Amino acid sequence: MPNMDPKKTPIPEQDPAVRARNFKEVSLGYSEEQAVREAQRCLNCKNRPCMSGCPVSVRIPEFIEQVAKGNFEEAYKIIKTTNSLPAVCGRVCPQERQCESKCVRGIKGEPVGIGRLERFCADHMRGKPVEQEIAPANGHKVAIVGAGPAGLTAAGDLVKMGYDVTVYEAFHTAGGVLMYGIPEFRLPKAIVQSEIDSLEAMGVKIMTNMVIGKVLSVDELFDMDYEAVFIGSGAGLPRFMDIPGEELVGVYSANEFLTRINLMKAYLDDHYTPIIKAKRVAVVGGGNVAMDSARSAMRLGAEKVYIIYRRSMQELPARAEEVHHAREEGIEFLFLSNPTKIIGDDKGHVCGIECIKMELGEPDATGRRSPVEIAGSEFELDIDTAIMALGTSPNPLLRMTTPGLEVNKRGTLIVDENECTSKQGVFAGGDAVTGAATVILAMGAGKKAAAAMDQYIRNKK
């Protein structure tokens, strides 16, 4: 008989007062007993509605059935047939909007903790050898540009098909946003590295410090006998508001702030990475990156951290879990507010921020209500650092150095339904196509592109 508890099995977490001052992982994960108990809540629905919400088509009921029986290795093998990065997805996917939103158990209670169970399986098998089916080498070479979630997923799927796969990464470390963007307390870097090591063990070759568009062009990759190229270079170009004071010392893009902390280890005492250890911080934006920036600032020693968002709580795009954790940690949310200028002192350093109150206007064609300023409602906050978490766009280097590669007005690559770009043999996916989005959507694009690249090369042959 299934466990009919209407609520998810709670997941152990660090105490908010303690974790707000350290970079250790917040959620501690299920024990074997807790995982089995939660898995037994699954009704194993015949039509598998949960799978319709998964961009990488994890065989959810099948792996959960194995967890319920205590067959953790078999559960992990099932996940790995479609998902190359389960330890990552179990931690950072917005499950409440995807697989868990389709779970039947959620109608009269809480959905099954699918993400928590996926994380458990990956953590349980970490460091243990697991056999995976890999096709014999087929003699074809493919190149991947970018070792982020899209590129790594495409690489994993293609190497399983028998392709000779090389990933070219601009940074000195593979992982993309998983390494430089998402903080240690949400996604430990050792976990990401373990997933990358698993891909390399399967045969994926990763070359770092390789800026495609500078060291090599896309056309030069084809000259090197690669038959298809996947561009998963992400969106690392930050956006600003174009308001007075953004040039002051103490204004960061969230991209720079998080990269200094995560990739350059500014949070460790034995790493000399310059970063302002601010006391009063304002983070502008309402997505997961804003939550990560605010919570990181708190852990660096800030006494007061504000998140300034121009819409209301109902429109906040960040994951519910991240918002909940941020509030527990003492971060203050200023909804329906928008900065108008950043204030500096006589030395050119940030000392305040002026904001104006907003109200939501009538819904547009998509149903989204645009914020409108309330005249005369300006107010000031005393701060010493401002972090702009307003989204990102792709670096223009690739499109400037690749003839025939078309982009739209936002600078993102144009692709068809199979992730094919306008240039023959070139495929793309992830943030380079969508702009800043979620890890799992990037992975879904990488998976779709890998299948399309396989078909392209087969048909070409």
Would you mind describing this structure in some detail?
The chain is an alpha/beta fold and 461 residues long. 32% of the residues lie in helices and 16% in strands. It folds into 3 domains: 16-125, Alpha-helical ferredoxin (Fumarate Reductase Iron-sulfur Protein, Chain B, domain 2, Orthogonal Bundle); 141-236 and 393-460, FAD/NAD(P)-binding domain; 240-390, 3-Layer(bba) Sandwich (FAD/NAD(P)-binding domain), CATH 3.50.50. It is built from 16 helices and 16 strands. A 5-stranded parallel beta sheet has the order 3-2-1-4-16. It has a 5-stranded parallel beta sheet with strand order 6-14-7-8-9. α4 crosses α6 (114-125). The longest helix has 22 residues, at 439-460. 47% of the residues are buried.
Give the name of the CATH architecture of the largest domain: 3-Layer(bba) Sandwich
Question: C-alpha Rg, in Å?
Answer: 23 Å
Secondary-structure class:
alpha/beta
CATH homologous superfamily caption of the largest domain? FAD/NAD(P)-binding domain
Given the C-alpha coordinates, what overall shape results? globular
Termini separation? 53 Å
Largest sheet: 5 strands, parallel
Helix-residue proportion? 25-40%
The number of distinct structural domains comes to 3
Note the total helix count: 16
